Amino acid sequence: MLFQVILSFAAVALAAPSVPERRAVGDTFSASFTRYNGCGASVACGGAAGGKTAAVSQNLFGVGSGAGAGPACGTCWELSSGLAGTASIKVTVDNLCPADVHNEKCSQPGLGGKNSLGTNVHFDLCADNGAAATFFGESGTELATGTAKQVPC
User: Which distant-in-sequence residues (6+ apart) come within 8 Å of 99 by Cβ?
Assistant: First the structure.
């Protein structure tokens, strides 16, 4: 009987969904960047973070739409692009850019996969708090690729 209880417990533990891990400071990914408006109204992390913020692709966020705050919530990232006129900035993750058929930039299959722009992750930079304007600066565009490196907040 005790053996059956132990086996049942082990089966439940193995069947439980895994909790996505938080990324480590220093992790670096190829990244694509766009801007979005209305970013302070409703955020997946439970509230807007202060300063410059971004929504990140589902593979980096760690959970899908409606699943609550992902492990990326509150992490800070240094974003840079080689595109002329752009500036490197530090943002805090406070929202999800969900993976779906209409959102190919945020639909990478895992952190090793690539989106339609050929990058591992995507950052949607908030226009409402100045993240997009600071990053895109005088570039004349609202789409770029480059790198994202997790940094201490």
Answer: 57, 58, 59, 64, 106, 107, 108
